[in-house]
Amino acid sequence: MNQGWTYHDRISKQQVGLTVLQYYAQYYRHSSASEWQTKIASGQVQLNDRSTTPDTPLQKGDRLAYHRPPWQEPIVPLTIELLYEDADLLVVNKPSGLPVLPGAGFLEHTLLHQIQKQYPQQPPVPIHRLGRGTSGLLLLARSPLAKSHLTQQMRDRAIRKIYRALASGTVSADELTIQEPIGPISHPALGTLYAATPTGSFAQSHCRVLQRNPQDTLLEVTILTGRPHQIRIHLAAAGFPLVGDPLYGVGGLPIVPAQPNADNVPVPGDCGYWLHAYQLAFQHPRSQEPLCFTCEPDSSQLRVSAIQNVAN
């Protein structure tokens, strides 16, 4: 069991008039309205630091706090391989299945929490994110200087990120550039979800074929931008969803069961797809030295032998 957690929210102008129950039922659909009613009635939710009722109307600026009691988190791989360390930064190899940040049912079983336990005095901060099912290179800042400079490099698109991806089907072109906009769309069970949409933000992924197999294609993918789930969405939008991706289908849109319920709706944190952060290049924030790291996929993964053979 973990130590539990308190989730804080502040009511905006657009949310004025909702009741406490309506707010949680609308914005946190992982629990049903009846489940939220029980939580509120049992005192797990406070409004402006006081107990509240499900039918209390909300005003602009109100502060809500949901005190989630301790729970048993899903089992995930917690071994994180350290590839590089100095006073300013860390580069680690994240295993597939380990979330980077807290969310959903994960609090302590996250890369951030495990790193904070190893560096309690000045916990490193992730500069970018990898999806839970994505393995490979992750960059973290250890000093304020590094956080500032590396974040600026991310904004300037000066950090080069190259992935290995196993896509469904045969990609006929040797190289492919995908520029499908990515943004939030409505989802019948999750509320909103990032996907391919004309109203989304600019995103660009450049793909190069490394190996064609009878039913899939091994790709090298370089991303210019870093939109949520960008490679998963872009390859699906191009007609080549990642092998094993339970969430994004052809067109870059989420797969929604005919009768969605809490047990059968795929979510972004579901694993099973084949994506590995293979290479990471950036400028050291203090010395200005160019650094480049390469990380081979874990040899224990299925189909990884094909990836390693190409990489070598």
Account of the protein in words:
The chain has 312 residues and is of the alpha+beta class. Among the domains are: 5-68, RNA-binding S4 domain (Structural Genomics Hypothetical 15.5 Kd Protein In mrcA-pckA Intergenic Region, Chain A, Roll), CATH 3.10.290.10; 159-273, Pseudouridine synthase, CATH 3.30.2350. It has helices at residues 20-27, 33-41, 111-118, 144-155, 230-237, 304-311, and strands spanning 5-10, 45-47, 50-51, 63-68, 81-85, 89-94, 125-126, 135-141, 160-168, 175-178, 182-187, 191-196, 205-212, 216-223, 248-249, 253-254, 275-283, 290-294. The strands form four sheets. Strands 5, 6, 7, 8, 9, 10, 13, 14, 17 and 18 form a ten-stranded mixed sheet that branches. Strands 1-4-2-3 form a four-stranded antiparallel sheet. The longest helix is centred in the middle third of the chain and has 12 residues, at 144-155. The model is unreliable at 300-312 (pLDDT under 50).
How would you summarize this macromolecular structure in one to three sentences?
The chain has 312 residues and is α+β, with helices and mostly antiparallel strands. 17% of the residues lie in helices and 31% in strands.
What letter string, H or E per element, gives the SSE order?
EHHEEEEEHEEHEEEEEEHEEEEH
* C-alpha termini separation: 43 Å
Strand content: 25-35%
Oligomer: single chain
Largest sheet: 10 strands, mixed
Q: On the 0-100 scale, what is the average pLDDT?
A: 92
Give me the secondary-structure category.
alpha+beta
| Unreliable residue stretches | 300-312
For the record, what CATH class of the domain at 159-273 applies? Answer: Alpha Beta
Q: What level of helicity do the residues show? A: 10-25%
Q: CATH fold name of the domain at 159-273, please?
A: Pseudouridine synthase
Number of helices: 6
Radius of gyration: 21 Å
